[in-house]
Amino acid sequence: MTRPLIFLDPFPRTEAMVWDDATRAAVEEMGEVTAHFGSRAPDALVERILPEVSVIVGQTALPKERLDRAPNLRAVLNVKANWEPDLDYAEAHARGIWVLSAAPAMAPAVAEFALGQALSLLRGIHTADTRFRSGDMGIGIGGNAAARPLFGAEIGLLGYGNLGRALLPLLSPFGGRLRIHDPWLSDGYLRSQGAEPTDLGTLLAQSDVLFLLAGVTTENAGGLTRARLETIRPDAAVILASRAEIVEFDAFLSLAAEGRFRAAVDVFPEEPVPPDHPWRQIPNVLFSHHLAGGMEASYALIREMMLDDIAQVLKGLPPLRMQRAEPRLAGLMRSR
Amino acid sequence: MTRPLIFLDPFPRTEAMVWDDATRAAVEEMGEVTAHFGSRAPDALVERILPEVSVIVGQTALPKERLDRAPNLRAVLNVKANWEPDLDYAEAHARGIWVLSAAPAMAPAVAEFALGQALSLLRGIHTADTRFRSGDMGIGIGGNAAARPLFGAEIGLLGYGNLGRALLPLLSPFGGRLRIHDPWLSDGYLRSQGAEPTDLGTLLAQSDVLFLLAGVTTENAGGLTRARLETIRPDAAVILASRAEIVEFDAFLSLAAEGRFRAAVDVFPEEPVPPDHPWRQIPNVLFSHHLAGGMEASYALIREMMLDDIAQVLKGLPPLRMQRAEPRLAGLMRSR
Amino acid sequence: MTRPLIFLDPFPRTEAMVWDDATRAAVEEMGEVTAHFGSRAPDALVERILPEVSVIVGQTALPKERLDRAPNLRAVLNVKANWEPDLDYAEAHARGIWVLSAAPAMAPAVAEFALGQALSLLRGIHTADTRFRSGDMGIGIGGNAAARPLFGAEIGLLGYGNLGRALLPLLSPFGGRLRIHDPWLSDGYLRSQGAEPTDLGTLLAQSDVLFLLAGVTTENAGGLTRARLETIRPDAAVILASRAEIVEFDAFLSLAAEGRFRAAVDVFPEEPVPPDHPWRQIPNVLFSHHLAGGMEASYALIREMMLDDIAQVLKGLPPLRMQRAEPRLAGLMRSR
Amino acid sequence: MTRPLIFLDPFPRTEAMVWDDATRAAVEEMGEVTAHFGSRAPDALVERILPEVSVIVGQTALPKERLDRAPNLRAVLNVKANWEPDLDYAEAHARGIWVLSAAPAMAPAVAEFALGQALSLLRGIHTADTRFRSGDMGIGIGGNAAARPLFGAEIGLLGYGNLGRALLPLLSPFGGRLRIHDPWLSDGYLRSQGAEPTDLGTLLAQSDVLFLLAGVTTENAGGLTRARLETIRPDAAVILASRAEIVEFDAFLSLAAEGRFRAAVDVFPEEPVPPDHPWRQIPNVLFSHHLAGGMEASYALIREMMLDDIAQVLKGLPPLRMQRAEPRLAGLMRSR
After folding, report:
1. Do residue D15 and residue D73 come from a single domain?
2. Residues D39, D166 within the same domain
3. Which of A13, C217, D135, D140 has the most CB atoms at less than 10 Å from its CB?
4. For residue A232, with 0-12 CB atoms within 10 Å meaning exposed, 13-18 middle and 19 or more buried, which class applies?
5. Do A112 and B119 touch (CB under 8 A)?
6. What are the pLDDT digits (tens) for C234-279?
């Protein structure tokens, strides 16, 4: 029996991110490996592997004409957290090819980061240090005029996908009311997850802490307009964690700057943000430069999930750890 | 039947902290109230209430000779989080007088603050903002060289009292190994709480995240000497949350400044810290000025617990929410 | 815009089970309804609805030639808990038609029943009543020679599908070691669920309480042979909850009758069991007549899940509550 | 330094229950041991040990005159689950002597038994076996007319002491509304435990599953009169788990016999119940003969808790595992 061919084309993921010695050894035990790092694999290489390949790890472009030439292909493991636009999802689905994304591997890191941002906004952890170093004498309750608790706070999640599912168990011990708005999910499903489904208006107006976790779709880009953002509960803590495009970004920053709400921002419409960009000087915002998900622990989890799911797929079993593309939804998601 | 006399002497707690309208109304329904705010109640006033008083709310000095003159006294509710030195604990215990502290009301606020500090130290949340504003171009994994996850981290708690019990459920969802060292608690008890009991040496050497939560006693003051602190796991995140006196403070700051470990410090040997004190300029420490516990939400919880326990005591039932003095231990705790 | 056609053909489910007034009203709001109860829908009726139908609720036979004539079909909601053999899963999948089963709606009922069986076996709850009525004088520890605790017991699950996922949270508070054997699931996945993956031999030999929850496949039918069953830990409590075919049934009963282990049996190779069948007199077994899942509460949950998922599908969104057929696995599952 | 004297007088607990080899070895390492088994220790022996004894394990009568002669006594560990009437609780308290009961060691066993009883009552697990053996042909929903789910049921606890605290985490995963009535506990405390405080009338009328867990006091004996019992929600499952004296016992059985509610009974006003007592033939009740707590696993836990707390007390630290007598309440509890 011939061994299955596994093709790696993970750019822009680097060799270091997805291909440490242990991973390489484990994959090589499962099949023959062809790999290309440092750039998108050249067309000639892709053409050469198509007739044999069983599993593709990476973001290789896979329009229908390529899928037609890959009769053994069982799975495509996108090691980024998105859905690439140049893959024919419907055709892959029709052929029974699993298309998978590594988004779940990023979720724990983003969830703990978002919780830390929320606690910093509510309790002033990041500003306390600056104040202390500047000689501020506010101490105890005298320094806590703006402090509010996470315990018992009303919490809102806009979007309940990988990030929301990772964040929910971290928030549960704080005991507050938990609402979710996600137009792709039924009320019954959200209740079965222990949350209260709600409409967008209520979510914005009633949350003390508001996590913006939705992906961008062709439908919701810019959906949180200035007018919507103005309905956010005054002084709420708002964490923009998923994609900048879901808010009217400059309006969001300007409302935060005015003190309308407290904001933490990890994602931007343009990344990297140029060093002298005016965003960098907006006051009253807790900034980070897309640091929530991309850490070594997340890549270790990508490697673990990838190994698990290659093994499942080669046994003819469904993958379990990475996220499966929903054929109708993948096309709606905007990528970059 | 005469109504019981309830005496309030909460200084340094202010009237606003413990005596809002709802609290006053609820207490006045339970008995006659005599109150003194703004300073320690004068001796003459104390002498006058002793023969009748059933419940004292506050830190009134209560040596044996005063207890001798208070035949109806059932409970003393210290609305601070400590054990006052000028109360005769053994005598109160012998007379069946409950002596209670409001420490449990502070614990949720301190626990969530400490979790936020830990996440900031591990994930660089507070430094990310400074770096972003300064034009730093590190983004994603390129900006996360020092980032480490809380998910899966080995966690150590030094001391497992009110703070530890409030913090444990917040840490559980992160799934890491959890060790506790507390010389006052048996191994069997710690295991029954879902934690792994351990000795101090292992705790310091094996924790990725180390929460210092012990109270100060006549036995452990300064117990974490420089030599001990040097055995902390390199690059661990260390949160000093309870009392500065449990560490050799200057050694602690200097090891943190050298990058030996990451540190968050909320408590100081001298408070308030003078505005120009050199501590305020130590690098590599996340400072706050005793902000972890003293917020409005904590005082609201004090009021709630106080009301609950006054009602219990006046019904002849044991108090449930505030912490009971352990007669042999209260004397060991250092107060201020 | 024309309203979608929803076709009901739920036999052997009755009208009462799936079509109460509230459900009917809700479905009729979502589309035009054609329904047939009391028998499998006649071919002529099926042929008539195929050209228009969007959603089929039931077990209508759907070979490729019928799917070819159903261009608008988006989903088939099997309201039984199995995968029907006369549906072309691969073709349905290729066409992007969701094929769903109501198995998850049965899982809570089965899980709580299985927990109750385990507690009865371990603690002798069902035998206590008989003994008491017969005048037995064993009381307290004098009557508990055979009693063993669930708290701290080593627990094994054979199979981790809908039943296992519903049962796990009920077992967690008992704090014992939890092992799972499921050849379709990777070790990494099982660990991510908080369980310890294990091989079949260890599972049988080391479990104090063993839940048999696997479905029957063409591969595992009769897999628990007498030889295998003899390796079960002596005096273990064994709950046969999913399908009788996964064990060598008469050997299983005979080992239980000999006291080799304690057994609870809810499923049989032949159902209903004839009234005078010798199985009914086997001693030392806690019998029930396929009562674990089929209760009114389960049908209420089927109706709720069905409504939720019809709504999702008609909005072009993925279903969330019912179970999706895995095209490669559905064919392996034996049905009846 | 002389080693402390530890005195064992555990009757009616037997030597086997409290004094296995490991326990004996561990206690002998902590001090000198004098032990008497098989009967209450003779007065002469008690008199002899009083002047030196540090710890008494058992139910030795300890009126004030004996306490006066026991200057070193630090703790009395009652290894039963009650409060003995012939101990002077107030005097022991005044002297700073811990008086402890082993009730918490019984709680896990009772809680899991009560959960099993509830599941049997709701789902008919114990009757299913009898029906099956008798040739009954009811299968699936056809045999489940009386079955009701625990998932989502409204649950009521009468009394929230050791039993309630052990039971609550077992019930939480079922997700139903949870109410508690306990006149000794404040509403705020019950809410802090995640339950809803309620009055007795609401508890009886609104619970689908009702756990009777209260101890008997001089105040509540017979408190659940026939009139009260008639207000129980029709067809509720009622588990009498703590003490028979809290209900009007014959009325309770007779209402259950009439089918007014479903009942499980483990405790009786007279124990052991004579073999031919008419109680033993009451229909529609799930009986057991005081089997809920007294099993080997409970005695193992008593030994573990006892060892832990002897060690704590001999170090001058508060006990942690056994229950402390509340001096005012212990006197209210009826014992036998």
Report:
1. yes
2. no
3. A13
4. buried
5. yes
6. 999 999 999 999 999 999 999 999 999 999 999 999 999 999 999 9
